[in-house]
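Hi P.,

Sorry for the delay on this. The queue was packed all week, but I finally got your sequence through. Input first:
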Amino acid sequence: MVSKILLILSLITFTLSFAQEKKIDKPKFNQELATSLGADQYGMKPYTIVMLTTGTAKIEDKAKMGSLMKGHMENIGKLANEGKIVVAGPFLEKNKENYRGMFIFNTKSKEEAEQWVKTDPAVQAGVFSYEIFPWYGSAALPLYLKYHDEISKDNP
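Then the structure:
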């Protein structure tokens, strides 16, 4: 009985040590892809984040607000199609900063990001205001957009 237990333990030890030795190979570096995405040596690049906050406008007319939000969503789609927005979305709960949503723009220029955010009808109408921050993230971030279209049945 003891010999069976020792045999089992030695097999388990061998299996565990073999599993630990097996390493997942790092994907081969792709210089062409890195260059096309503007990646630095770490695979990163600068972006600009725009945090949308509640604006000063108080719009009670539901039809007008619906039209502004439709324009807001259409503008996001337009900017995404132009490669300017790489991430956009609302926050799911209230927060002390009163942030409503965010954009990650594919630019390191705060001035350029501000020009782009000002094309939003809801920003123009004062439904949203914004704060702008420089950010450093993966240069591969824009690549997720092509997969998003494959997994979404409806657009808001």
